[in-house]
């Protein structure tokens, strides 16, 4: 095997690290990480969600693998199916972020049924294959022993951005880009002053979260204890996740017409012009089938959908969030 290239974003978890070798996506696991993997692989929910496309397809790597970052051999190495196009939460419109949040919560509910939780709740653990969210961080699964450890991260990178856009119509993308750890509870609490704190989901997940955080130290054990007293103990973890899932599914953004959402009705093309352009684009696509087509300035996505008939993957990009949400 060729030399390994570590994934720069995979450094926080001492029991799991992603690296690349010979165009393969590999994950090295410590002894504890390997034990967690064996328990995960033996569950009913894991192979089912892999087959349904909700969790990235993964299997033990059979060939010799490069050593860990300090030269020690990994206890076990896994190989992940490669994600065709990598994107990030600060690039996603509201509907994509919401679907990614639903993906995480649904698989967490299934995992909790079999005594497993996710130690992380970050939105960066989800990618998209086409329009389908896929959970990629297999190192996040561990035995459930108390409150959900990933709750704070989930709020900061999923729930808080969704709440401020749904309730305040504040775009979250710039805020997430400026802080990869997500939005801080105290900062979000400041956005929901007065009666705004009683908007759906805000008082429990923002206001009480901020108050609890001010009363505890930064250690994870103190946070776990405080969350346990607030009703996030092991016995209520599943009910809490189910309620959060219900909340996320109900969040929505009310949009009016934007510059490009009505593009087909407002553009300057005549019907003949549009027909000529469509025929030209389709002929060009048919002459050179591609694995991936990038449509920059997709507008209403008409040509993205046309390209889908001639490529394995189409990525539609537009500065107007409303048109991407509508695809």
Characterization of the model:
With about 325 residues, the protein is α+β, with helices and mostly antiparallel strands. Helix content is about 45%, strand content about 15%. It has a five-stranded antiparallel sheet with strand order 1-2-3-5-4. Strands 6-9 form a two-stranded antiparallel ribbon. Helix 3 packs antiparallel against helix 4, helix 3 packs antiparallel against helix 9 and helix 6 packs across helix 7.
Which descriptors apply to this entry?
five-stranded antiparallel β-sheet; 11 strands; alpha+beta; globular
Short account of what is shown:
The chain has 327 residues and is α+β, with helices and mostly antiparallel strands. α3 packs antiparallel against α4.
Summarize the SSE layout with pairings:
Blueprint: E1 5-6, E2 16-21, E3 24-29, H1 31-41, H2 45-51, E4 58-60, E5 76-80, H3 94-112, E6 116-118, E7 126-129, E8 132-135, E9 141-143, H4 151-168, H5 173-178, H6 185-191, H7 202-215, H8 220-232, H9 234-250, H10 263-266, H11 271-287, E10 290-296, H12 302-307, E11 311-317, H13 321-325
Parallel strand pairs: 10-11
Antiparallel strand pairs: 1-2, 2-3, 3-5, 4-5, 6-9, 7-8
Helix pairs in contact: 3-4, 3-9, 6-7
